[in-house]
Amino acid sequence: MMARITAGVASSHVPLLGVASDFNKDRDEYFGPIFAGYDWTREWEKAEKPDVIILVYNDHASAFDMKIIPTFAIGCGERYKSADEGWGPRAVPDVEGHPDLAWHIAQSLVLDEFDMTIINEMDVDHGLTVPLSMMFGKPDAWPCKVVPLAVNVVTYPPPSGNRCWALGEAIKKAVESFPEDLNVQIWGTGGMSHQLQGPRAGLINKEWDNMFLDGLVGESDHLRRIPHIEYLRETGSEGIEMVMWLVMRGALGKKTRALHRHYHVTCSNTAIGHMVLRPDNGEGLDMTGSDTVTAIAAE
Amino acid sequence: MMTEDPKHQDIHEYLAEFEDIPGTRVYTAARARKGYHMNQFAMSLMKDENRTRFKADERAYMDEWPLTEDQKLALLARDYNRCLDLGGNVYFLSKLFSTDGIPFAEAVSTMTGMSFPEYREMMMNGGRSPEGQRSIREKR
Fold this sequence. Notes:
Chain A is an alpha/beta fold. Chain A has helices at 15-22, 32-48, 99-111, 126-136, 161-176, 206-215, 228-235, 243-250, 290-298; strands at 4-11, 52-57, 72-75, 79-82, 95-96, 117-119, 123-124, 145-151, 183-189, 256-267, 270-279. Chain A is globular. By secondary structure, chain B is an all-alpha fold.
């Protein structure tokens, strides 16, 4: 049996959520409503038991500085430590890689004309560890392996939404040709609307964010054609991170359905968005009956 | 929603549009070149020993870097909008925020002309509306 992508998860990766989790503030008045929107997903992940997460994120001047700026980079290492972002590293477990799968994907992507940068050693910052905390809570060890996939969304131009979507399509193809029975999820992280710089800082656009969430569900692929300038105008200078969600969406095939959706304004400077998607192309991926549970929970 | 074909995007038009966004400095290649040493200087503050040396004498520490006088003055004054104009990027400048021991959001608020309590209040109430903030030219 071959590996397969069984689900896609989208989530913001605001650093403050990591702080809230690490210092047990995740159920207080401020953070409670944000974390409550992930409760469903944590239960669902326990039932799904993914073997590997392909985690699409961006580094925030932690592992990469301005010396080298890879547009798309894939982590092929054995293990990654939590980065010191100026306040000491987060007290979270090390992230275990899956070098065999990662190298397989890297090779397949290069043959598919995605010229990837390969990373064998790096630390991973909040962009990667905050989503793990949101989906898995505070375990002694993360319950699955992770293939980090870093996207440049800091120095312009970042890759287009269309290119990100196409990368997702190529990742799906690569995973499905890996000859091992692996349950693989793909996560797209960052966003939603936020601007961290200049006099316009603090911009939030609920309406646009929800339009984007709507667009991830079903058969339409119109999101891949949104130009950068629209993200910038509508969602703030850092809203561009949402192109990383399109890598996830592209890897789910033609059609998806939503299992779970959560939106919260605001966490610090940022609108929180979270979604769980199932590929819906006749794959029959509801292995545990959790999709039905979802439908009930969503009502 | 705009649906331009990115395959036909002209780099000059692409960059020109960024200048039409109110109150925003997009981190373009031009800014990245101008601010290269400023951002690498900020990156050096990831190391504790460098933070200690910087705090002991900010001016002397910055003199070790090929920064312009304008960049040094902007950094000394913690004038972050000026730092952005001189090629700084907020993720790199945030190393200075944490060296100063101030929350990211507080440093962000200094760029808005609001006090930190005012900024926090705005964020608690749903953030800054995009109305009138999308385009200088089109006034929308």
